[in-house]
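for the writeup, i need someone to sanity check this before i put it in the appendix. the sequnce is what the collaborator sent (i think, or maybe the updated version? ugh). structure was predicted straight from it, no edits. if anything looks off just tell me and ill rerun, i have time this weekend
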Amino acid sequence: MIIIGLLFGYGYISLKKEEAECDMAQEQYRIESRRKAEQNEFKVREEKRKKKEGQSSNSSSSSSSSSYDEGSDDAYSGDYDENRYDNDENYRDGVDDMLDELGE
């Protein structure tokens, strides 16, 4: 009887351990899927923004485009340069557009 009880207890503990590992794996999968979806959304927004920017100002210089992109990237990361924001119109536009897209 004792041996059967011990075997049952060991089996129950093993089952709970496997369930916990499965739950962790599922959570990791959900996190990774969410991260990939956010990256894809960001890429789509960036492509739309670049397409829109290209249509609205084909004659803009690469430095203003670069400044806009840097502002957009900095705003997405949550850390933009306030001095540059105040002094660089293209950087400010990039920051403002990204913050609008992020809903902030």
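The mean pLDDT is 80. Helices lie at 2-56, 62-77, 82-87, 89-102.
thx in advance!!
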